[in-house]
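User: Structure please.
Assistant: Input sequence and predicted structure:
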Amino acid sequence: MKDFQFLFSAWIAVWAVFFVYEVTVARRLSKLRGEIDRLKQQLREG
């Protein structure tokens, strides 16, 4: 029974790390899109 508890804990830890990674990537992508929009606006203005 202890093996299942260890396996479940490891499974939860892996998903937690994956979730944090996904949030980090989403935030970086959002910042990058904002930067691209800002640069496009600067090019339009001259």
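The radius of gyration is 20 Å.
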